[in-house]
Design goal:
This is Biotin synthase. This protein is of the alpha/beta class. 35% of the residues lie in helices and 12% in strands. Helix 3 links the parallel strand 2 and strand 3. The longest helix is centred in the middle third of the chain and has 14 residues.
Length: 206
């Protein structure tokens, strides 16, 4: 799939994979298929809320770096029940991953799930955490993201927003661009509204 997408893209546009854990040999295959980098995160509650061991996440990030892939990550998915100590622990893990971009994302509550009882952070709270991530992250990390896109997050230091189309695990419709998803033009408008200069051209984050 990656090879087919790569053929359709202008050569300067980076192709980023967001997928399950993988080993070094699989990372090399991704690179050979034309991927520039991967998104991978050590999530809050790893091994407890999820069934994935934290060490497995870290091994995947290292495999990507060894294969020459850029790594993007994020402090996520943050809910009201998470303490500042828990959040800081993941911020440090993300920082030490030497990513092309980091940032923070709140968990979107899905009614009827086990985590529904905790609710969801407001945009003001997640914007504060986005600012903390930016301050705690090296200047060598150019990208700081927030998700889902919002102006308050961009004002707080997010210079990277994600447009979405197709399926979305945070949505109940098949084509999220008709619902929760934000297109490129809307993300650009948010960044401009927040005072960012939007540059045209391929990303340098990975």
């Amino acid at each position: 799939m990656g090879q087919q997408v790569r053929r359709e893209l202008r050569t300067a546009i980076p192709l980023i994979a967001n997928m399950a854990d993988f080993n070094y040999e699989q990372a090399v295959s991704l690179r050979q298929a034309g991927f520039t980098g991967v998104y991978h995160a050590a999530r809050l509650g790893e091994g407890e809320v999820t069934r994935i061991n934290l060490e497995k996440r870290l091994q995947t990030m290292e495999a990507a770096r060894r294969a020459g892939l850029g790594v993007g990550t994020c402090v996520e998915p943050i809910g009201p029940e998470h303490s500042m100590e828990e959040i800081i622990e993941i911020i440090i893990i993300a920082r030490e991953a030497r990513p092309g971009f980091s940032g923070a994302m709140r968990r979107v509550t899905l009614p009827g799930t086990a985590l529904d009882k905790y609710g969801m952070l407001g945009e003001t709270r997640i914007a504060l955490i986005v600012a903390v991530v930016r301050l705690a992250t090296s200047r060598e990390v150019p990208g700081n993201c927030t998700h889902e896109p919002n102006v308050l997050g961009a004002v707080s230091g997010a210079n990277l927003l994600w447009a979405e189309a197709g399926s979305n695990p945070r949505d109940v419709v098949n084509n999220t661009e008709a619902s929760r998803g934000y297109n490129v033009a809307r993300c650009r408008d948010m960044l401009v509204d927040a005072g960012w200069q939007v540059l045209e051209g391929p990303s340098k984050f990975c």
